[in-house]
UniProtKB/TrEMBL annotation:
Pfam families registered for this protein in UniProt: RraA-like
Residues at which Mg(2+) binds: D102
Species, as recorded: Arthrobacter livingstonensis
Reaction catalysis annotation: oxaloacetate + H(+) = pyruvate + CO2; 4-hydroxy-4-methyl-2-oxoglutarate = 2 pyruvate
Binding site for substrate: G79, G80, N81, V82, R101
Main EC class the enzyme belongs to: lyase
EC number assigned by the record: 4.1.1.112, 4.1.3.17
Assembly information from the UniProt record: Homotrimer.
CDD domains cross-referenced by the UniProt entry: RraA_family
Keywords: Magnesium, Metal-binding
Name assigned to this protein: Putative 4-hydroxy-4-methyl-2-oxoglutarate aldolase
Cofactor list: Mg(2+); a divalent metal cation
Length: 204
């Protein structure tokens, strides 16, 4: 995988990948304006337990997006202090299929967190599990090293083996769009839609 840009829009990436790589829309940013992009560092937690996320913040490389399958959303897997330490260590943010707490603290930190729920009760710390194993997050199988991109539009995962090709396609489309005026886009769009309608037998 080549060096990643600082941020790649999930909408730009989604245009280049299958719908199956888009995480559930139920996983939402914790605060307005949150966004992240970077290689995944995957974490599996047992239901009601947050031990492995708390371990991961001390082990994940700077720039990583920590991606968590929390097992359920009954207990928060992290709060303000965990996010503050992760931010200080250079972690790009969290994507959590589960619950978080301390929303105001995390918002004040401006640390990017995307989660399925907010629950005030923290989980226990009792179940050790391997880190960096494939996890199911938002209905998508994510492996460590896959590219994660998230903002208010949603979250997209790109398998590590496809990242270079996808980023090249994203850059190519962006270049074409910069060179095309709105009038040119409108003409091309109208021709495309009319062609599809004619092929479908619609003539009006």
């Amino acid at each position: 995988m080549s060096t990643l840009p600082e941020f790649v829009s999930p909408t730009a990436i989604a245009d280049q990948v299958d719908r199956s790589q888009v995480l559930s829309a139920e996983i939402r940013p914790l605060w307005e304006g949150a966004r992240l992009s970077g290689p995944a560092y995957t974490v599996q937690c047992a239901p009601g337990d947050n031990l492995m996320l708390h371990a991961a913040i001390h082990r994940a490389p700077a720039g990583s997006v920590i991606v968590v399958d929390a097992g359920d959303a009954s207990h928060a897997v992290a709060g303000g202090n965990v996010c503050a330490v992760a931010q200080r260590r250079g972690i790009a943010g969290f994507v959590i299929d589960g619950a978080i707490r301390d929303v105001e603290e995390i918002r004040d930190l401006e640390f990017p967190v995307f989660a399925r729920a907010v629950v005030p009760k923290p989980g226990r710390k009792a179940v050790p599990l391997p880190l960096q194993q494939p996890v199911n997050c938002g209905g998508v199988l994510v492996r460590s090293g896959d590219l994660l991109s998230a903002d208010q539009e949603g979250i997209v995962s790109v398998p590590a083996a496809s990242v270079d090709a996808v980023l090249k396609a994203v850059a190519g489309k962006a270049e074409l769009e910069r060179e095309q005026s709105l009038d040119e886009w409108e003409t091309d769009h109208q021709q495309k839609i009319n062609s599809i309608l004619r092929e479908a037998g619609v003539d009006w």
